[in-house]
Amino acid sequence: MTKWISFDTLTWPEVAELPRHYPLVIPLGNGYNRDKLAEALNQPHQIALLPSFPFGWRGSQLAVPEHLLRAYLWNLLNSLRDDGFVHVYVLSPAGIQLDLGESQIVQPYSPKSDHLFPDESNEKVLLIPIGHTEQHGYHLPLSTDTLIIQAITAGVVQTIPDKACSLPVMPYGVSTHRSEFAGTLNAGGRAFEDFWLAVVDSLVLRGFKRFYFLSGHGGNCSFLTTVIKYAGERYPNIFCATAYLYLSSPQGIQILEQYRQSGVGGMGHACELETSLMLYLHPELVQIEKAVDEIDFIATPSFYMDWVEGGALIANPPWSDDTRSGSYGAGSLATREKGEVWFNAAVQEKVGHVAEIQEQFRRRAKKKKITSL
């Protein structure tokens, strides 16, 4: 009988130990029969399932041109190939032409949910959460960024359901350091930008005019800025915004400083903050006994690592220059109690951003109406 591995619950050393002949599968959506998938793969001993790709194909209620979807998925598959895995696949419904050759498995698809969009939500701010599947040191799972931003987004919608709604979280983003740590995927910067701009195109056609991209992964942020700039130029009557991660506002930084125990360098990646949030949200996935504190980032006054990256210089040196475990920061100082405080503060920060997006849209629409008279 085939054993199923949940890829994104693993740490990167656990991915490094997986036999390279195990099949790895990225499903487009949820709703496939596992027995039929195992049969299609000739009943292997184990199959690793990656997080499902939530939308983008015909039949998902939010489609983009197939060549853009293909580029995104192809880059993800190549990330796994670069790690040495020889059997990597996209699992899709019938009728989708991705030109992936033998890397595409087609099977009957019965979606678990027929409603991607909330009803009558065009006047709300549409939250678009994007996480990632990447290494988070020895002690946190690959799904860390996805789980955190998914929870923050859900918290915002629960707090202000009359003002915000959300798409499902996207668990794949951009990692430019992917080759150094197993299990770290990379959608590719240009493919990422093209895909998300096409998502905005589709949403505007549906009547949405207020958008907020929320990223749980720092590597997405610069590319989302490009998406925002193009979207704003293409559609002058919408308001589309993003922000650097979470707890990056003055109020957010203040509450980080109030409770943190680490100094500068203690919050960067798989750090005091992210580990605390995971201890609060998903303690069953945290192997805190394996946490390694790495705060010896090669820092100069204009270039250093902390949660809100500081200094005038922007660079991307190899991560292995500064970390062996994949962590940047002091994960051992994390606690569930700090995670709860910081999570609630992150939700309130985003609630405030939603209010600003609504106000920006309202005031700009009013000004346009007045000036057009």
Describe it.
The chain has 373 residues and is α/β, with parallel strands linked by helices. It is built from 9 helices and 11 strands. The strands form 3 sheets. Strands 1-3-2-4-5 form a 5-stranded parallel sheet, with helices on both faces. Strands 7-6-8-9 form a 4-stranded parallel sheet, with helices on both faces. β8, α6 and β9 form a beta-alpha-beta unit. α8 crosses α9. The protein is globular. The mean pLDDT is 94.
Write the layout of secondary structure elements.
Elements: E1 3-6, H1 12-16, E2 24-27, H2 34-40, E3 46-49, H3 66-82, E4 88-92, E5 104-106, E6 125-130, H4 144-159, E7 164-166, H5 189-205, E8 210-215, H6 218-234, E9 239-242, H7 250-259, E10 267-269, H8 272-281, E11 328-329, H9 336-371
Parallel strand pairs: 1-3, 2-3, 2-4, 4-5, 6-7, 6-8, 8-9
Antiparallel strand pairs: 10-11
Characteristics of this structure?
11 strands; four-stranded parallel sheet; about 375 residues
Low-confidence stretches: none
Query: Any idea what the radius of gyration is?
Result: 21 Å
Give a quick account of the main beta sheet: strands, pairing sense, barrel closure: 5 strands, parallel
Net shape = globular
Q: What's the overall average pLDDT, rounded?
A: 94
What is shown here, in short?
With 373 residues, the chain is of the alpha/beta class. It contains nine helices and eleven strands.
